[in-house]
Amino acid sequence: MHESVVVYEKEIMCDGSIDGKTLGHPRVYLSIQTDDLIECTYCGKVFVYDNSQN
């Protein structure tokens, strides 16, 4: 199963990092649309949008 990350913005960047230091793949910029989640096509990490901070 791939890692899920809660984010508070709809425009995000993924570099495949697991520990915050090591890059896993080239940076890709993702835009969360209507489903409030998006999966990185490189590493499969799922970003889930939480609008409770807005």
Which terms would index this structure?
mainly beta; 35% strand
Oligomer: single chain
Number of strands: 5
Walk across the major sheet and give the strand order: 1-5-4
SSE sequence, one letter per element: EEEEE
Number of helices: 0
- Enumerate the spans where pLDDT stays under 50 for 5 or more consecutive residues: none
Average predicted local confidence, pLDDT = 88
Largest sheet: 3 strands, mixed
State the separation between the terminal residues, measured CA to CA: 29 Å
- Strand fraction equals 35-45%
Radius of gyration based on Cα positions: 11 Å
What is the SS-derived class? mainly beta
The shape is globular
Helix proportion? under 10%
Give the SSE layout:
Elements lengths: L3 E4 L3 E4 L13 E4 L5 E3 L6 E4 L5
Parallel strand pairs: 1-5
Antiparallel strand pairs: 2-3, 4-5
Description of the molecule:
With 54 residues, the chain is mainly β. It contains no helices and 5 strands. It has strands at 4-7, 11-14, 28-31, 37-39, 46-49. The strands form 2 sheets. Strands 1-5-4 form a 3-stranded mixed β-sheet, with no helix packed on it. A hairpin with a 6-residue loop joins strand 4 (37-39) and strand 5. The mean pLDDT is 88.
